[in-house]
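Hypothesis: this fold can be encoded by more than one sequence.
Test: take the structure tokens below, design a sequence, compare later.
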């Protein structure tokens, strides 16, 4: 029996950049009673809270004891957060957002961020895919997520329909990523979500995160079942497949919900 259920987030647990649906919150709540749950994504920590944790607490009434089995592998797993129910003087009976502890972080230097940012911006402009005129007020195309830099073609605040329509076959982002890699060869550029490219030091992809997951939780590859939508070569879930970890490829959160119901149904 598997000990770990690990998930990509966007398009796997939810509609991109939105909180997980009620049904997913209830299913993950049940899973927390049986497994260690490990979302791993290019998202920043705050998005993990908005998209997953807050929904588990507010919709599914997940307890602090259950949250101790939820492990947040942020920015491809280059940052790891775990919940400490009794930290900060709490008695463990109520949820406190301040009780998330950062276990490790591998941040980029300012110089590395600048190099990646320049490579992404110049590459997108070179092929006509720099969409600054389509940004919502206060939004940005390139975001520093400490241990990675993320390019989001339409920004973080764009509507779901616009994001889905912008690059459904990934051709635009694959081209931008290819050009950026040629400019700064010691960094990796991976397509993610609906409009994103995650950039980071070579080797610090999801395989890096999964190796740290195994080390931190003292498990082996055979103990893990992974769910992701970008498992094709060049997708940000592909390194997990390459590791030989059992993987379920999904198209959307409905596929994941269906699979989880099957898993929970045989326990």
């Amino acid at each position: 029996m598997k000990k770990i259920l690990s998930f990509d987030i966007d398009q796997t647990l939810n509609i991109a950049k939105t909180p997980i649906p009620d049904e997913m919150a209830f299913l993950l709540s049940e899973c927390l009673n049986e497994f260690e749950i490990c979302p791993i994504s290019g998202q920043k920590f705050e998005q993990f809270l908005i998209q997953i944790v807050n929904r588990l607490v507010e919709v599914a009434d997940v307890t602090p004891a259950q949250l101790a089995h939820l492990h947040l592998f942020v920015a491809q797993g280059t940052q790891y957060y775990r919940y400490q129910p009794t930290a900060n003087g709490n008695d463990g009976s109520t949820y406190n957002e301040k009780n998330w502890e950062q276990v490790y972080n591998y941040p980029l230097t300012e110089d590395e961020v600048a190099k990646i940012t320049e490579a992404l911006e110049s590459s997108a402009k070179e092929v006509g895919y720099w969409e600054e005129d389509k940004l919502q007020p206060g939004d940005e195309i390139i975001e520093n997520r400490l241990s990675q830099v993320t390019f989001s073609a339409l920004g973080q605040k764009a509507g779901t329909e616009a994001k889905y329509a912008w690059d459904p076959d990934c051709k635009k982002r694959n081209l931008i990523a290819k050009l950026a890699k040629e400019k700064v060869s010691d960094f990796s550029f991976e397509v993610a979500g609906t409009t994103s490219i995650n950039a980071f030091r070579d080797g610090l992809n999801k395989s890096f995160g999964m190796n740290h997951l195994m080390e931190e939780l003292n498990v082996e590859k055979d103990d893990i079942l992974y769910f992701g939508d970008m498992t094709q070569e060049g997708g940000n879930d592909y390194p997990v497949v390459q590791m030989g970890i059992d993987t379920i490829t999904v198209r959307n959160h409905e596929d994941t919900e269906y699979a989880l119901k099957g898993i929970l149904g045989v326990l």
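The two ends are 10 Å apart (CA to CA). Residues 57 and 248 are 26 Å apart (CA to CA).
Hypothesis status: open.
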